[in-house]
């Protein structure tokens, strides 16, 4: 709740490439979705869900159907609905994505070791 009370942004401004590379394909869309998902800030930790390691996988079919597999830091996290809706909204905003399904999983369980090196440095965790 500290993040909400601090007045810091809940979502970051969208980060979009000026021009999509030719023949980006489904793999390119998956990377664009990952970039977009960095806008979703975990309200308790104040850091984006991708670098926190909460996003396990992003896949996109040739039909533009995206599947985001993610977790929360703990089972029963009070921000679960917020994080799922944020992920769904950010993935849907990517040009070329037709539908989005966000799958919540707890296998494997999240741990701080899943964070990116930048996130670990931010929280003072040694890699």
From TrEMBL:
<feature type="domain" description="MIP18 family-like">
    <location>
        <begin position="31"/>
        <end position="102"/>
    </location>
</feature>
<dbReference type="Pfam" id="PF01883">
    <property type="entry name" value="FeS_assembly_P"/>
</dbReference>
<dbReference type="InterPro" id="IPR034904">
    <property type="entry name" value="FSCA_dom_sf"/>
</dbReference>
<dbReference type="InterPro" id="IPR052339">
    <property type="entry name" value="Fe-S_Maturation_MIP18"/>
</dbReference>
<dbReference type="InterPro" id="IPR002744">
    <property type="entry name" value="MIP18-like"/>
</dbReference>
<protein>
    <submittedName>
        <fullName>Metal-sulfur cluster assembly factor</fullName>
    </submittedName>
</protein>
